[in-house]
Specification:
Layout lengths: L2 H10 L32 E7 L18 H7 L3 E7 L5 H10 L3 H4 L15 H7 L3 E6 L16 E4 L9 H18 L6 E7 L28 E3 L5 E3 L10 H28 L6 E6 L5 E2 L5 E3 L6 H4 L3 E4 L7 E8 L3 H8 L14 H4 L10 E4 L4 E5 L3 E6 L6 E6 L15 H25 L13 H9 L11
Parallel strand pairs: 1-5, 1-8, 2-12, 3-4, 3-5, 6-7
Antiparallel strand pairs: 2-11, 8-11, 9-10, 13-14, 14-15, 15-16
Helix pairs in contact: 6-7
Length: 481
């Protein structure tokens, strides 16, 4: 790869920079909804439910032994489960830029300098709003604040962390469900709706409410070696997340599972309300996550985004289409980039130009999936990956020359052994595929940079900054000590 290209890629892949935090005055108002003069070709409602930091393999539909997700499992049996679904970027802010635009950073402008959803991008909500949909969202992670562009296309955008009447994370979770249920009860009957609910659970700290705080603390939660308490996320329990007297990994994974079970119950309440509203048979439901979580794999504890291994990349993806055959399990390679084109395909609306994702509508109906050979991923640490069901090649663009590691996921599903030296032909092929992908991105950046100026939008409120701090995110100096 050319040295100049390596330098530009490394710059483009730098860690995300948090935006400054001042008052609420600068937050952009959601775009007003147009009159429903242009109708969708297939006027299905759309319900998008996303759960922050949710690993696919901690759910029943993906083989987990604990009953963490009975309501989501039941939903999945009515539609399609994607067995190989991955986030493009394993951090919330970037992940949702990709999901809501269907574009990669060289196309949507996301970078260290512009860590937000930039206004020149068409979005899923915007496309549906323009077609006459009533659009609303309830979200509980300040990384998707309206001030950072994520409210584009929504008639109403409810930021749970700004609610002064809510005490604690679980109260926010309940408020998301209550908001969604209220919307479903009062949704307009003369036009379809798009409702997005984003739950922050099971993001750290893992503190599920009763009875889920004890639900999985069985004998197994008291077994296994004791971990050290560490200042960071490598080598043991991060000090801010340490629970006094609890030094075994199994305790923390049990509490992570408890948080999943708790939010599963809340999602069940929303699904019950959808049925009661009479709109179930007219509603496309998409369930997924922004990224996973490392629970000690690769000596990385209770965090996400520092690497591109499956614990951080693999996410659940369920698509339920009214009238489609139930019980589909698709092996198709699926990306969070595919959410926008999949939804628009199913409701029969045209796509925005310049998408990186592709529709999974055929695979959701039990037909063959997209004819793609690979998926790609990137993160905040100058890392890029290309992978399929068999191999994953990870490249780190730091220093003079990139560092590569190849993992044979067929024989090593934990991605623990670099086989680049022992399997030169796969290494050559996957390296070429990654370099072609990144070089194409470099050409795209040359066009996208023309659209970049000073980012529009407001700043995060003090409450948003405090919420980010509580969730363990790095916040800028303007947020205070």
């Amino acid at each position: 790869m050319r040295p100049a290209l390596r330098g530009r890629l490394a710059a483009a892949l730098l860690g995300l920079a948090a935006a400054g935090c001042r008052g609420r005055e600068g937050a952009p108002a959601p775009t007003p909804s147009p009159s429903p003069s242009s109708r969708p070709g297939n006027p299905l409602n759309v319900l998008l439910i996303t759960v922050d930091t949710l690993r696919a393999d901690r759910m029943g539909i993906y083989g987990h032994r604990r009953p963490t997700s009975p309501r989501i499992d039941a939903l999945a049996r009515q539609g399609a489960v994607f067995e190989q679904a991955y986030t493009y970027w394993p951090k919330t802010r970037a992940s949702f830029v990709m999901m809501l635009t269907g574009r990669r950073p060289p196309q949507n402008g996301y970078s260290h300098q512009h860590p937000m959803l930039l206004d020149f991008n068409p979005t899923l909500a915007g496309a549906l709003q323009a077609a006459g949909y009533a659009t609303a969202a309830w979200v509980d992670n300040a990384n998707v604040a309206a001030a950072l562009g994520y409210a584009k296309g929504f008639d109403a955008y409810h930021e749970i962390w700004e609610r002064k009447d809510l005490a604690g994370e679980w109260a926010g979770t309940l408020a998301i469900s209550d908001g969604g249920i209220g919307f479903l009860r009062s949704a307009p009957k003369d036009r379809p709706f798009f409702l997005w609910l984003h739950y922050v659970n099971p993001h750290t700290p893992y503190t599920p409410p009763a009875p889920f705080d004890r639900a999985f603390l069985d004998a197994g939660a008291e077994q296994g070696p004791k971990l050290r308490v560490m200042p960071g996320f490598q080598g043991g329990i991060p000090r801010p997340l340490y629970v006094s007297g609890q030094r075994r990994l199994a305790y923390y994974t049990a509490q992570y599972d408890g948080e999943i079970a708790a939010v599963d119950q809340e999602i069940g309440r929303v699904l019950d309300a959808l049925r009661a509203s009479g709109a179930w048979g007219r509603t496309l439901i998409v369930f997924t996550s922004d990224h996973g979580e490392s629970l000690g794999e690769h000596d990385y504890y209770f965090d996400h985004g520092n690497d591109l291994f499956d614990p951080c990349l693999r996410v659940p993806l369920v698509v339920v289409v009214p009238g489609a055959a139930p019980g589909v399990r698709s092996p198709a390679l699926a990306s969070t980039l595919d959410v926008l084109p999949t939804v628009l395909d199913i409701v029969k609306l045209p796509y925005p130009a310049n998408l990186a994702g592709t529709s999974l509508a055929g695979a959701a109906a039990g037909r063959a999936g997209p004819a793609r050979e690979h998926l790609f991923a990137q993160n905040d640490h100058a890392m890029s990956a290309v992978f399929d069901a068999r191999y994953k090649l990870v490249a780190v663009f730091e220093g003079v020359a990139p560092r590569y590691a190849l993992y044979d996921r067929g024989s090593d599903p934990g991605e623990t052994r670099d086989v680049a030296g022992g399997q030169p032909e796969p290494f050559r092929r996957y390296r070429q595929a990654l370099e072609r992908f990144l070089e194409a991105g470099d050409r795209e950046w040359s066009l996208t940079r023309r659209l970049l100026g000073r980012p529009a939008g407001g700043s995060l409120s003090p409450d948003a900054c405090e919420r980010l701090r509580a969730l363990g995110y790095v916040v800028p100096p303007q947020c205070g000590p």
